[in-house]
Fold this protein.
Amino acid sequence: MSTVITPRTGTRLVKEALAQMLKGGVIMDVVNAEQAKIAEEAGAVAVMALERVPADIRADGGVARMSDPELIIQIIESVSIPVMAKARIGHFVEAQILESLGVDCVDESEVLTPADEEFHIDKNAFTIPFVCGAKNLGEALRRIGEGAAMMRTKGEAGTGDVVEAVRHARAILGEIRKLTAMPKEELMSYAKNIGAPYELIVKVAAEGKLPVVNFAAGGIATPADAALMMQLGVDGVFVGSGIFKSGNPMQRAQAIVKATTFYKDPEVLAKVSRNLGEAMVGRNCRDLAPAETLASRGW
Amino acid sequence: MIVGVLALQGDFAEHINMLTACGVKAVAVRYAAELDGLDGLIIPGGESTAVDKLTDDGSAPIFSAIKEKITQQQLPVYGTCMGSIFLAKDIEGSRQGRLAVMDVKVKRNAFGPQRRSFETDLAIAALGEEPFPAVFIRAPLITECGLGVEILARLNEGIVMARQSNLLVTAFHPEITGDLRVHRYFLDMVEGHKRLC
């Protein structure tokens, strides 16, 4: 009955499976071990380590980079849930460092200052999975083509304004719906027009969904925002500044977790939304100057 | 036959697809009332600390209802990965909530971080000669089990599949492989229990 173990690590199946286990859950941005513990206690399925939450990156300006490895190690040691960490777009050395630290997933993120304005990381070269942001189906399939094992909407991080996450989710899911109704002879032109790998277009047209798990991110600040994204058809949510920039992080985090599970139940949503205190102050996405938008980073 | 899949968090949709492929009616279960009329239940993969939080304050009093179905009606339950943690009596170094119905001790995240997650071909005599494609994602191991527990598969020194009466656990995830044999094995348990009732 005993088996000689021939483990195959870092396969596509193994990378994508990590994301599958996170579905229906909330992944929370944290900058230190103390916040990570609060997130775990509130029911986060994973935490995302970064040096400053997006709202602070917006306020402070300057170059935003991968977090200090010491902080990431402290976060890994403080929780039992998966730990993700952000690397700059195209900065494959930051990603190598994160992998060596033992993080469970790298977010190649537009929230940090891009290190390469032309090329993203070759994610197939890594053992651990990557999550990447996208505004539309073409962008999502380019990232998956490069090896991303999980996708998320870009939204507009650090604003507390959900409008861009809604736009990106509707764009991605709408284009998928369109593809499923498209005759085969139109698929190649469609692939060319949106700049996506043809094989992935064929796969999405046949299956009616992205080949990897797809979360919402960027501007989610309330339980209702999380449930809205879930009802639109995403698999789970990332919450960044929305929790630790609010008046009562623990209570808000718990409420968003419940809202993500019971997203179709307005009675539960009403109950968990009561008396949460101050939401993050927020910035209207329409008031952002073009240079301030993070979603336009990457292609 | 109707089999429920606990749908608070995790890869419940994959289990529903597998059950459907086996020709069984499968339903997502989020509320205690949805347990009524089920012939079996699957607790999927996911994050146990997160699901624990969803069940501990009365907004989802589903765990006490599941425990009652297991202890009083011997409801067949299959737990994958996280599911095995919830069924276990003992979790190494953790006080997190559990159903504590299966006489096993589990070690969470026994292989280390995601870079140590893996797939392998596992010999499982109960499923036939052909090895089973087993995927382990930050997986637990069963480190001890009681007398009433039948060990169905081992990986090196650890136990990765076990059964105690109407309870079945695997540390790996058959639901993401397309190989229906573990689900069919569980459905045989459900069928056997249904005939007795």
In short: The longest helix of chain B spans residues 181-196.
